[in-house]
Amino acid sequence: MIRVRDLHKHYGAQHLFRGINFEITKGEVVVFIGPSGSGKSTFLRCINGLEYFQQGEIMVDGIQLHSIDRVRPKKQDLETMRRVRLKVGMVFQQFNLFPHMTVLENITEAPVRVLGMAKEKAKETAVSLLGRINLEHKVESYPDQLSGGERQRVAIARALAMKPEAMLFDEPTSSLDPEVVGEVLSVIKDLVTGGMTTLIATHEMDFAREVADRVVVFDKGDIVETGPPEEIFSSPKTERTRSFLSRVLKG
Length: 251
Hints:
Radius of gyration: 18 Å
Number of strands: 10
Shape: globular
Distance between the termini: 38 Å
Number of helices: 9
Strand content: 15-25%
Helix content: 25-40%
Strand order of the largest sheet: 6-7-8-3-9-10
Mean pLDDT: 93
Structural class: alpha/beta
Order of helices and strands: EEEHEEHEHHHEHEHEEHH
């Protein structure tokens, strides 16, 4: 489904990724863990075409992303990024809902404008998705009338309304109050049990252990270890993984 080859990413003089190679199969749930600033979010954004990279290639369901001129991108490069984003939905740390639109309008806007879906069909899909996340009673509400957990669930529904082949979650609970984290994680659990190819960057270790087919540990732009969750959390092979887990799991 997704293949990354020799990925290099620079921020000025900082060389974040130094030749990452990675593959994700269709239907796989991969969870990325590691310290803040280790490259998890940037890696997801590269896959979705939201971050430029300087060397290497990313293949998403047969569509190839490669390094481009960020100042003067070619028309075909922009079209390639658009095609990738249609394949891969993304949910961000901040909800990024349109504040002037109702919940229903937030979910139906892109399917109608981008996919050319009929308005009634888009509305039907939106109502169905809201039912799945127990928010059908919020159809006419605006984002500022919702809790943080409700807004993030709407953001997930909005991404799913585009019928993506894969979903990326970039720290989806980091902006939430602790008491509503569970409701968002529950929605993601339901999604992954349905067979969606899913990549998740998170600091929720219990959640990672529960839902992942594979856990990937990032540190300083490197993938330092990868394996099934029971192996990563019980018998990590590298000192960098052991050091990270000792900090986040203490107590």
